Amino acid sequence: MLAVIELGGNQFIVREGDVIDVKKLDKEINETITTEALLVSDEEGKETKVGTPTVEGSKVEFKVVDQFKGDKVRVFKMKSKKRYARNKGFRPHLTKIEVLSIG
After folding, report:
1. Cβ neighbours of residue 90 under 8 Å, at least 6 residues apart?
2. Residues 6+ apart with CB under 8 A from 101
3. What is the per-residue pLDDT across 31-63, written as a single tens digit (0 to 9) for each?
């Protein structure tokens, strides 16, 4: 089974056992999360259910594995011939989650 889910304003294609990084969720490590799927399909794509906006009765369970900071992102601004240049950076807070089941 595979599903398309939405977390933190982003959509992800997930399968059982996948581990993905999403924007920070205010959950504790080893806590479980459930959400509804936007699309549910089998691996071959023969049975596909598309939701409007979510599939009725679908349930995707996750387990929070880790809370961490991602790689540094550089933000560089420059205006040519004006001697203006700014270089900033930040490390986004992320949550690593594991897909337990798709139903």
Report:
1. 72, 73, 75
2. 16, 59, 60, 61
3. 999 999 999 998 888 889 998 899 999 999 999
